[in-house]
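Regression check, KG4 case 332:
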Amino acid sequence: MKKIQYLLGIETSCDDCAVAIINSKGRVLAETVNSQTRHHSKFGGIVPEIASRHHAARLNNTLLHVLKACSMQVKDIDIIVVTHKPGLISSLLVGVQFAKGLSQSLRIPVLAVNHIEGHLLVGFKQPNFPLIPFIGLIASGGHSGLYLYKIKHEITLIGTTRDDAAGEALDKIGRLLGLPYPAGVYIDKLSQPASPKYFIFPMALEKQVTLDFSFSGLKTAAKTAIEKKIKNQQDLANFCASIQDSISNALLKKAMLACQKYNVYNLVLGGGVAANTKLRHATIILSLMYSLNLYLPEKKYCSDNAVMIARAGLNFSKIHKKHTLDFHVESN
Ligand code: KG4
Ligand code: ZN
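Current build output:
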């Protein structure tokens, strides 16, 4: 196979239409994330049909824009990396079919990667990104899980949410508060400054040795607090700070448990919730307390983007069996 110099990443698993070009050192040459948030927010969540139509309408131009931004031509690309799971089927299909078509016409390989592995490997080849083994904590709107990356090219799920993902819980609580979708970033902003211990919410599975999370109880407790205890703007700020505190504690408690259980003290965070101010501070403090080697992606690389897909592709690009058109899209 030809030596890989330039990788094209394509991400259309949900509502962001993202394209990036990186080089073999993982350096970003150009990237774009076309957010569709404004088209979905009035519905209080993602509408799959709207998402896929927007991807279909924009993907080609997004690629042309990215190529222009780094003064490259499509024939300069050596390999295409595309998200094929998990996500919304109709959205994934747009990206995957586009990538397969491009691969055929340019006669270059296409590599299918898992969106979660993209979040985990967003820092691949970057300074401070740990060598394997590491524990990955992914907290986004669709997923919350703990992963062990121990053997080259093999990532194992070691803990997951039993109900809502952390971001999903924040978005649902935000909806009860009348905040726009997705609410995580608004809850983050409203929390500053406020008292994170003003409301004490229960932590599910706290005393159990499981690495799983659960956030549905928090949602119920939040609903009661919203109905009975939020009377003014300061209550609202305290409430938001307390919700964040509770979610951060739950995520980090299990992440720490995973580090201890597997005797792995390299920790990587990812997913949209990893942009949360409280979670980031709390993780840094934890890493200092327990001498963890921590990788916190830049905020813009916590939420969905195509750099993470391209970098995951760089990590996996030596696996020959994945270079085939014989792969399919898969939802959650
Ligand atoms: O990774 P992502 O962009 O998409 C999925 O793969 O789901 O994550 C989106 C989630 C949403 O639930 C959003 O509310 C949450 O990340 N989020 C945040 C923040 N920014 C985005 N949650 C808390 N604090 C933030 N600053
Ligand atoms: Zn994501």
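Comparison notes: The chain has a mean pLDDT of 94. The radius of gyration is 20 Å. No diff flagged against the previous build.
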